[in-house]
Amino acid sequence: MVSEHSDATGGEASALALKILVAGGFGVGKTTLVGAVSEIRPLRTEELLSEAGQLVDDTDGVDHKTTTTVAMDFGRITIRSGLSLYLFGTPGQDRFWFLWDELSQGALGAVVLADTRRLEDCFPAVDYFEHRRIPFVVAVNCFAGARRHGAPDVSRALDLDRGTPVVLCDARDRDSGKEVLIRLVEYAGRMHTARLLDSVG
């Protein structure tokens, strides 16, 4: 995703806009992360949890949650001059996974948010991105009262491919979320460069 804009001298300067997915299990903090880092008012498609949804949504550990994303979240953040990220938060429930294929088209990479109290909830996202060879980082959202686990422990528990970054974060904090996105852009850049070199080698 590349857009052009004029610089102060009247010439054309390239501004790079990259598409990033924010994925993970139900109630892990995807909407919170997108809202915390976005420099524009984020687009949200949240609906109140219904009694019908209680039959299919596992709310253990997130009893306080009253809404859920039913399509996507959208936000934008400028990392530096000439580099912006468009963030697409995916819905977490199984019944909305059909949207992931559309959202992942053209994505540079993804952030998989994880909650160590419900670590198994992020397995589907990890499998999805590994299977499609979409670079991703795992960001452990450090909830208050949750036992802290180091990045190596989380990496082993999720059986991640060697080199897949695991970072600790607070999805409510803009600076923390921005650091996660920077790590992803750096990692995805290295992965795409390596694949390009392999293809021509």
UniProtKB/TrEMBL annotation:
- A Gene Ontology molecular-function term? hydrolase activity
Annotated keywords: GTP-binding, Hydrolase, Nucleotide-binding
Q: One Pfam family name from the record?
A: ATP_bind_1
Signal peptide region? none
* InterPro entries according to UniProt: Gliding_Motility_GTPase, Gpn, P-loop_NTPase
Record family assignment: Belongs to the GPN-loop GTPase family.
Know the name of this protein?
A: ATP/GTP-binding protein
> What is the organism field in this record?
Streptomyces azureus
